[in-house]
Structures are given as C-alpha cells and as structure tokens.
C-alpha cells in the first residue's frame, strides 16, 4: 500500500495496516557504497531509528560490500543511541569501500551466509545490489547443499528485499530531482567562490575554478548561475567551434566595463565539440596567452565532498531513510528492487534497474541525451545561464519601448538581489527599459524610481539583504501617488519581489483598477520571505538561507554543550505564525520538539516533552534541543517554556534559551536561493513580455483581467502563474499563512526520529500516516 492510499484510511483501518507493517521479527541491514556524500549519515540515522520504531532489528554493515563479504565485527546490531550526534557529520560513519570480491559469485555467497547468520533479509543500500537480490535463492540453496546453513533457513529467508538511496554530489542519477550530497557540495563551491571574489577583485584577477563532474555538469552549471560566472564548461554541452576567441572577447569586454573579476568554471569532465578534454590549465594558458590577464587556477577536489551537510541534504536524507524502511516493510516477493527518489517536494519509489539503465544508456549513446534522461531542469538551468551571462550588442536586441518597474516589498530575504539582477537582465534582453523602485511602495509613491542598466546589477547574486531597499508599507494609502508615478514614468508593467505584504499589495492594486487606469498593466509577484508563508508557492526566496542559518546555529549551540552534562536548549525562530522554519529546522538539527502555531499544543504536551527529556538524560545522549516558532502560542511564550522546563527539570537537567532574531534574515544567500531567485525572476519577466504583447492596443497597455495580476509560485516541481485573486481562498489573512502547507506532512518525521518508541499506541499511529508520499505509477504518469 502506497502513501496516498494510507492517507485515505480511517483511524481504525490504519492501525490494522500498521500491524501488518510491523517490523517485529525482521532484520534490516544498512550500508553505504561508492563515494561518500554529505547527508549519508542522516540517511543512516533515519533508517536505524525508523527501523527501531517499527520494532525491527537494525544492523550496521561497515565498509560497504567488503564488510558484508568479510562478516564478523563488520555487521553489528545497533541501538537508538548508536546514531546520536551523526546528523551534522559529513561523509559516512559506517564507511564505504569498493569490493572486487562481491562482484564474483563466491564473494556474494560469503555475503549471503553472513546475512543469514543474523537473519537479515532487508537491505537499505546507498548504492546498488540488484544482482545480489536476483541470485539470493540460488545462493541460499548452495549454502544449504554445502551444509553451511539448515534447509529451514532457506525456507525462512527465501526472499531478499532491497531499497536503494542515491548519494552522489554530482546529481547524476536518473529518476530523482536531487541526490543526497549535491546541495552540500554546492554550498562548498559557493563558499570558495565568494572567498575568491574578494581577493580577485583586489588584484583584477581571472580565476579558473575546476569542480567535480566527470559525466554530469550539474555542479558546474548551477555554480555558474549562482555566482554569475563569465563562462562555464560542462560535458553535456560542448562549446561551439571558435569558443576560444568568443570567451576571450567576452572577458575583455567585461574588463573594459570596469569589472575587476572574471570567473570561469570548468567541470572535470568538460569536452570540446571533438570530444577532447577542456582542462582548467588549458583555459588558464589560453587567457594568459591571448589576453595577458593575471590568471589563477583553483581545483576544489574533495573539498566538495567534505564539511557539514546542508539543511536540505539532512532533510532529504532523513525523508529517504524513513521511506526506505517503509518500502522494505511493504515489499512482496514480486516487488522489484526500488530506489527512493525526490520529485518536487514529494518522495517517490522507482524501479532501481530502470533508473540505472537510463543513466548507463545515456552515457553510452551521447552525453547530450543525458540531459533528457536526467532532468528537464538541467536544460532550464542552461538556458537561464546563457540568457544572463552575456549581453548581446544593442544592435541585436529587440526594442519594445515598454517600461518595466521592479521593487522589493516586505522584510529583506537573502536571494532578493539575485532575483532583481535576473529580472533586470532578462528584461533588457527582451528589449524593455528596466526601472528600479527604491524602498518598496512607499518609495514608489515618493518618486524614488530610476532606470537601471545591465552593469548596475553586476555582482548582485551573492549579496544578502535588499540593495533596492524594502519596506512593509502597503500601497492602499498611496494609490493616487503611485498611479501618478506610473503615469509620469510611463510604467507598462510591474514586478514585485517580496512576502505576504507583496501579495496583499498586488491585491490592493488589482482592486484599485476600477479607479486608476494606470494599474491596468501586467503585474507579477515573485515570493521572497524567510517565513515561507506566501499562498500559491511551496517555497519562497530566502527561506532556504534562513533554514541553513538556524541549522548551523543549532549545531554550534549543541556543540557548546559537548563538555556539559544534561542541558536542554530552547531556541526561538522567526516565521510569524508560519512554523516552516521551526519544523524544518527541528528536522534538520535533530530537535526533540518543535512548537508551531499550525499544530496546537497544551500544558500536557509540554509536560510530556519534559518527561521525554528526563528519560533521555538517563542515556548517553544527555543533551536536548527544543525549537519554538515565535508566534506558536500567545500564552506559552519562549520565556514560559524556558521557565517550565527549568523548573520541571531541576536536578535532572538545566536549560538555556536563545532567540535567533534577525540573523535569520541576513547573510549571503544559499545556492538554492540564488538559483531559485534567478530562475523564477527570469520566467516572471518572460511572462510580462508575453502579457505586454497580448494587451498592447491603441498605443498603450490595457490589462484589466484577473490573469494579468499573477503570483509565480513553485508547486511541487513546476513554476505556475496563478491570479492573485484566485489565491484568496487559499490564504489565512488573519495569520498571514496559507491554509494548506505541504511541509506539515513531514512533521511526523521529526517526532519519529527524535523520540524513542517501544510500541505502537493511538497517538503514535498518526505519526506514520503522511510519511510516504506517492506511488511509482504516479511518478511514471507525471501525476506529480
């Protein structure tokens, strides 16, 4: 039974289904294979704790398949505490090794014997083992014939179930939008680029940066988008003949425009149109010889694999680990080995060998085909990069004479500047005159509006905050002045980047169209707020950066107590009434509890959590973490919870509290926020261009329909334009949150992974209800 089917079950039927899924008497082995990737430990932790939650025995298989073949102390039963404090650790604590012996039947025979000795017939593999599964029954019969196992064991352990999870920083596996480790690798690359940019600008240098990716240029391409690189080389898109001269001309033009820094990114597998390698050294020599620029090469190498996993990778890996255990419990003898994948914000299961064959055939046939096999988003990234990286000569640009204004509204959010840069440059490419509005609607009313050029937004992608300035002021009291400014500056379209205030502002402008013709123009909103509380979009620009800030801070806070016994930290996060940051931060940081407005709690739950922490302090994990959304409850404030925990925990543990405050809105934007802001803004401006062409008549723009005022939001895996008026039914205007929020379905994961459970009860039953999401059939038909 798949995720959606379970969600339809009544409580009593669902409890019966849980009993059928009981892991009692089952044994699960977890191993990692191939190269390490940040987030693998989060997946291991999730498998262990979810397995124990359903009463299965869980075993570590150290050193991958080599450990399975060698047996002995390499296969060890683990406890709940065994995976404590590994969530934030990079690499894999159970080790990974290549094993030639496992590729032989004799090696697999040894592995089968070692598993049967412990009753393991369920494997969670970060890697692949389909042949092992197909041979399983034959291996057992051979072991029985040689007298190594009893005939009863052959009957008892007749089937081997395998579920895979993909850990790869290259993001080179078909069937999933993101592999475990990719986001963290991007964080490492962007951290290096940001550091390089400061020294390079001091000396007018050109830097050639080599990143990993022998067969897949995802890291190189997305990094180039995130930092605004001058040129990028990837294996899937060999440059055209004469690229050497084209690149040097572009570098010279940028330097002539007073740009002190040039960045060139090279994937290690980059090739030219003749399939010859393009190396970082070759690119450097070319720039030095033809331009004489001071040029340096930086090869990142295994730095990209190292370091702490990002919040996204921790959450992704935790979801994949839980889903893997559920897939094993639901498996039948006819169920093929599957891989747990990500589609949009949904976890799905896909046949393992189909995904592997798509990757293999893609590499054999043509690297160009790999784009189509892998993801449509790869091509979107490529097209967006080409659109933004180089301005065509004015003689080649169309001239529309349309004036498009861009402004930020609401609180600042990391990634806003990347969105503005993208909007300005795409708008210029489309032939429009782009105008920047300073300080939101208030600045608009006061005439703080100016034309902005291609070069004015250079270097904006990596800068936090809002360089245009932003305010929460709504336009209602300035309608006449704003209309006057739109008339004076002949503004033909409006793009608003911001949070819930931006949404309210567009509603007000739309309602004022009956009185002011000036507002009868195309208007589009791009969601940008750390709170992630805008209706019509699963994600908002800035929320990922804030989530990483919370996660990093929680890591440091927990680390500060590493030499202190029995301490609980109470952390307050931002978000208004939206609990996204608290809930997802709790999942990423391994919190014991997260209090949010969307899920009501009372003194009994607070007391139960205190009792849970009291019991926890009796184990080797003598540290607790509790997150509270700032507006989760007007009476149970952060101070109240701190005082309650302090009083009830006397003699057992002491408490500390931290209010993170505006640090969540600051800092350099994450790779996700840079790229999300870049792509969504590009699409928004292209929509504006289409609407301008559709609504231009009698010498002016006249758009007065609902679909000419839209919000561009991310829904699952698609960017969708939705009229702001139609979204009113989806919004809770009192609390400024959407009525339905996808991430609430992940809330049970945090509880399952945080609290030790020894048996099922009614309160526990609902915790698994929303864990698994969509069936493989839905994924194949594109239903998600």
TrEMBL record:
<dbReference type="GO" id="GO:0061621">
    <property type="term" value="P:canonical glycolysis"/>
</dbReference>
<comment type="subunit">
    <text>Homo- and heterotetramers.</text>
</comment>
<protein>
    <recommendedName>
        <fullName>ATP-dependent 6-phosphofructokinase</fullName>
        <ecNumber>2.7.1.11</ecNumber>
    </recommendedName>
</protein>
<feature type="binding site" description="in other chain">
    <location>
        <begin position="529"/>
        <end position="533"/>
    </location>
    <ligand>
        <name>beta-D-fructose 2,6-bisphosphate</name>
    </ligand>
</feature>
<dbReference type="InterPro" id="IPR041914">
    <property type="entry name" value="PFK_vert-type"/>
</dbReference>
<feature type="binding site">
    <location>
        <position position="35"/>
    </location>
    <ligand>
        <name>ATP</name>
    </ligand>
</feature>
<comment type="similarity">
    <text>Belongs to the phosphofructokinase type A (PFKA) family. ATP-dependent PFK group I subfamily. Eukaryotic two domain clade "E" sub-subfamily.</text>
</comment>
<keyword id="KW-0021">Allosteric enzyme</keyword>
<feature type="binding site" description="in other chain">
    <location>
        <begin position="168"/>
        <end position="170"/>
    </location>
    <ligand>
        <name>substrate</name>
    </ligand>
</feature>
<feature type="binding site">
    <location>
        <position position="296"/>
    </location>
    <ligand>
        <name>substrate</name>
    </ligand>
</feature>
<keyword id="KW-0460">Magnesium</keyword>
<feature type="binding site" description="in other chain">
    <location>
        <begin position="574"/>
        <end position="576"/>
    </location>
    <ligand>
        <name>beta-D-fructose 2,6-bisphosphate</name>
    </ligand>
</feature>
<feature type="domain" description="Phosphofructokinase">
    <location>
        <begin position="28"/>
        <end position="327"/>
    </location>
</feature>
<feature type="binding site">
    <location>
        <position position="567"/>
    </location>
    <ligand>
        <name>beta-D-fructose 2,6-bisphosphate</name>
    </ligand>
</feature>
<keyword id="KW-0808">Transferase</keyword>
<feature type="binding site" description="in other chain">
    <location>
        <position position="736"/>
    </location>
    <ligand>
        <name>beta-D-fructose 2,6-bisphosphate</name>
    </ligand>
</feature>
<dbReference type="InterPro" id="IPR015912">
    <property type="entry name" value="Phosphofructokinase_CS"/>
</dbReference>
<dbReference type="GO" id="GO:0005945">
    <property type="term" value="C:6-phosphofructokinase complex"/>
</dbReference>
<feature type="binding site" description="in other chain">
    <location>
        <position position="630"/>
    </location>
    <ligand>
        <name>beta-D-fructose 2,6-bisphosphate</name>
    </ligand>
</feature>
<dbReference type="GO" id="GO:0016208">
    <property type="term" value="F:AMP binding"/>
</dbReference>
<feature type="binding site" description="in other chain">
    <location>
        <position position="268"/>
    </location>
    <ligand>
        <name>substrate</name>
    </ligand>
</feature>
<dbReference type="GO" id="GO:0046872">
    <property type="term" value="F:metal ion binding"/>
</dbReference>
<keyword id="KW-0325">Glycoprotein</keyword>
<feature type="binding site" description="in other chain">
    <location>
        <begin position="662"/>
        <end position="665"/>
    </location>
    <ligand>
        <name>beta-D-fructose 2,6-bisphosphate</name>
    </ligand>
</feature>
<dbReference type="GO" id="GO:0048029">
    <property type="term" value="F:monosaccharide binding"/>
</dbReference>
<dbReference type="InterPro" id="IPR035966">
    <property type="entry name" value="PKF_sf"/>
</dbReference>
<feature type="binding site" description="in other chain">
    <location>
        <position position="472"/>
    </location>
    <ligand>
        <name>beta-D-fructose 2,6-bisphosphate</name>
    </ligand>
</feature>
<dbReference type="GO" id="GO:0030388">
    <property type="term" value="P:fructose 1,6-bisphosphate metabolic process"/>
</dbReference>
<keyword id="KW-0479">Metal-binding</keyword>
<comment type="similarity">
    <text>Belongs to the phosphofructokinase type A (PFKA) family. ATP-dependent PFK group I subfamily. Eukaryotic two domain clade 'E' sub-subfamily.</text>
</comment>
<dbReference type="InterPro" id="IPR022953">
    <property type="entry name" value="ATP_PFK"/>
</dbReference>
<feature type="binding site">
    <location>
        <position position="205"/>
    </location>
    <ligand>
        <name>substrate</name>
    </ligand>
</feature>
<dbReference type="GO" id="GO:0003872">
    <property type="term" value="F:6-phosphofructokinase activity"/>
</dbReference>
<comment type="pathway">
    <text>Carbohydrate degradation; glycolysis; D-glyceraldehyde 3-phosphate and glycerone phosphate from D-glucose: step 3/4.</text>
</comment>
<comment type="function">
    <text>Catalyzes the phosphorylation of D-fructose 6-phosphate to fructose 1,6-bisphosphate by ATP, the first committing step of glycolysis.</text>
</comment>
<dbReference type="GO" id="GO:0006002">
    <property type="term" value="P:fructose 6-phosphate metabolic process"/>
</dbReference>
<dbReference type="InterPro" id="IPR009161">
    <property type="entry name" value="6-Pfructokinase_euk"/>
</dbReference>
<keyword id="KW-0547">Nucleotide-binding</keyword>
<dbReference type="Pfam" id="PF00365">
    <property type="entry name" value="PFK"/>
</dbReference>
<dbReference type="GO" id="GO:0005524">
    <property type="term" value="F:ATP binding"/>
</dbReference>
<feature type="region of interest" description="N-terminal catalytic PFK domain 1">
    <location>
        <begin position="1"/>
        <end position="390"/>
    </location>
</feature>
<keyword id="KW-0324">Glycolysis</keyword>
